[in-house]
Q: What sequence folds into this?
């Protein structure tokens, strides 16, 4: 008995050590999307530092770079079949820093020194709007929606809002207007920041483009590549003019995306109503399988008027 107990204790310690230091092998492809997400987070944090130091152009470029990384990490995850709940949560946290906090710091340090109290409230509302927008997006991940609705966001997504909210910076950098020295334009800038914050938490359907890259007609491949190269060339050569023009086009697209979404929704509802009306007007024929059982009356013997005993 004395020899058995030490062996049992030794075996128990060995098994506990195996459980404690057990190593699960994770495929490398699962780490690739998270690498791009963390790289974007580094860009967002560095943008905050550059904004505090007054290097506004570098801060702006870093936010744009983070938006580019945010646009490709999800597609890379779907391409590599590396989507995970951990990656989704990490992406949301990175988006809040990159597109909620970093633009708020940049705008406040850049042009709101003359309206520090109300200016801080406006940029804080923008950051809170991005947090609420991301929380609503995560809560809606488990909802079942028709496939065509995945081509639309509910409200303005945080990366697009971050690019759009910096429109005053683009316009002044192009030399078209001087915003920081004009009190009226500064007040309009504050109203614009609040408007973008409200658009993030609104129910406005905005085009997402998620279904564009899945299947493309052959005749559109070369023009799409040509357009993408042209856009990148313009962004590198004329960054502020290109960003300002893209922002105006994106804001104008809200009307088109809303009309298209509600038109598609009305068509879907009309189809469902027509199907219900057709079923109600033409009920399925009664078959022996779905017919209701007949009430059987007991047969009585004898002639009418006689009682059967």
A:
């Amino acid at each position: 008995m004395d020899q058995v107990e030490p062996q049992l204790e030794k075996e128990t310690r060995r098994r506990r050590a195996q459980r404690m230091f057990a190593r699960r092998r994770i495929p490398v492809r699962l780490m690739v999307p998270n690498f791009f997400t963390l790289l974007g987070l580094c860009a967002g944090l560095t943008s905050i530092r550059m904004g505090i130091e007054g290097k506004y152009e570098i801060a702006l470029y870093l936010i744009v770079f983070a938006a580019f990384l945010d646009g490709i990490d999800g597609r890379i995850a779907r391409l590599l079949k590396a989507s995970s709940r951990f990656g989704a949560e990490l992406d949301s946290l990175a988006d809040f820093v990159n597109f909620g906090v970093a633009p708020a710091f940049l705008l406040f340090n850049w042009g709101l020194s003359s309206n520090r109290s109300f200016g801080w409230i406006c940029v804080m509302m923008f950051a809170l709007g991005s947090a609420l927008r991301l929380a609503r997006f995560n809560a809606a991940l488990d909802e079942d929606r028709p496939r065509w609705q995945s081509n639309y966001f509910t409200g303005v997504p945080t990366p697009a809002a971050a690019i759009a909210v910096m429109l005053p910076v683009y316009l002044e950098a192009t030399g078209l207007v001087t915003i920081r020295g004009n009190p009226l334009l500064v007040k309009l800038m504050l109203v614009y920041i609040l408007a973008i914050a409200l658009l993030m938490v609104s129910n406005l359907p905005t085009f997402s483009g998620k279904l564009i890259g899945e299947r493309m007609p052959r005749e559109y491949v070369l023009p799409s590549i040509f357009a993408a190269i042209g856009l990148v060339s313009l962004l590198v050569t004329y960054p502020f003019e290109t960003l300002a023009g893209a922002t105006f086009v994106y804001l104008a697209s809200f009307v088109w995306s809303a009309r298209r979404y509600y038109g598609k929704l009305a068509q879907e509802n009309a189809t469902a109503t027509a199907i219900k009306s057709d079923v109600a007007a033409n009920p399925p024929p009664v078959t022996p399988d779905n017919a209701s059982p007949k009430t059987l009356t007991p047969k009585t013997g004898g002639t009418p008027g006689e009682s059967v005993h």
